[in-house]
Amino acid sequence: MPDKTYVLITAAHNEERYIEGTIRSVLGQSIRPLRWIIVSDASTDRTDEIVSQYARENPFIEQVRLEKSHRHDFAAKVHAIRSGYRCLENVKYGYLGILDADTSFGTDYYSTLLNRCKMEPRLGITGGFIYEDRDGVFTSRQSNRVFSVAGATQFFRRECFEEIGGISPLRYGGEDWGAEVSARMMGWIVSAWPDLVVFHHRSTGATGGLLHSRFQQGKMDYSLGCLPAFEVVKCAARLTEKPVVIGGLARLAGFAWSYGAGGDRAVSKEFVQFLRKEQRWRLKEFMIPVGITKQK
Domains of the chain by range and CATH? Predict the structure, then answer.
């Protein structure tokens, strides 16, 4: 039945180091996806070879290769996901998951998400908490929140995904954040679950340099209409992230630079108004950051 079935899309560029672990996690699921589209975005390493091997042995895995070489940024990932989505036009399913090629998780991960979606019909986007390696121990990402689902593992009810128009390419990233806000604007619930652990084997920003990544995130925050007061509080709350102080300041600097330049927003005025209303409420409620717990 469609309400018990799901499909996955993965965009992969040079993921030979991690993608086999992701594939094994999906193969080990108590409820496997109906289809899994893995889009190799002009990979030049062994990504295609690894995916091809598993696709031959598992018919529900479909490999798609994008040949054209281009700059691999946030928009490129979205274009790859959209290419995978077009392969699902004639497939009947109830849920769609976006899954990064450097993640792993327990055998009941997707069955648990399906059960929780069944219990709450307005649950539009859901997923687990991201854990990353910190000094040899996988630790809950400091930015994990129950009201926000990381883009590495967003799980959409199909109706929600179609109503918001899917994932939109944004110059500075934040397509996952944009999807969440759009979903809430339309009355959907967005919820992440602390008891569902997703191991993210490559830390955010690891490929492009941490300070550059944080500066770009500040520009992303501005492009999506983040409330200036909220940006200051958010960056201050993350001053304990490594490297100490510098990462949070770099993000705030990126926001301030964009604010001073007066750049265009990547979203509508209605989107900005809704987002800022949410952020004012969270400032008023003095949202307390999620505590960090360790898991071996």
Answer: 2-200 (3.90.550.10), 210-285 (no CATH)
Strand ranges for 3-111 from DSSP E: 6-12, 35-41, 61-66, 95-98, 103-105
Low-confidence stretches of the chain (pLDDT beneath 50): 1, 206-207, 244, 288-296
Q: Is 192 helix (H, G, I), strand (E, B) or coil?
A: strand
Give the global pTM: 0.89
Question: Please, are residues 138 and 296 in contact by the beta-carbon 8 Å criterion?
Answer: yes
Residue 200 neighbours by CB under 8 Å, 6+ apart: 100, 102, 103, 130, 131, 132, 141, 150, 152
Give whole-number Cα distances, 268 to 130, 181, 224, 239, 272, in Å.
29, 12, 9, 30, 6
pLDDT at position 234 is: 86
pLDDT of residue 241: 59
What tokens appear for 203 in the block? 């830390």
87-90: which pairs have CB atoms within 8 A and are 24 or more residues apart?
A: 87/35, 87/37, 87/62, 88/7, 88/9, 88/35, 88/37
* Four-residue CA torsion sign, 174, 176, 178, 181: negative
Residue 18 CA to residue 24 CA, distance in Å, equals 10
Reduced to 3 states, what is the DSSP secondary structure of residue 207? coil
CA 111/CA 32 separation, integer angstroms: 9
264/224 Cα distance (integer angstroms): 10
Phi, psi of 98 (to 5 degrees): -95, 125
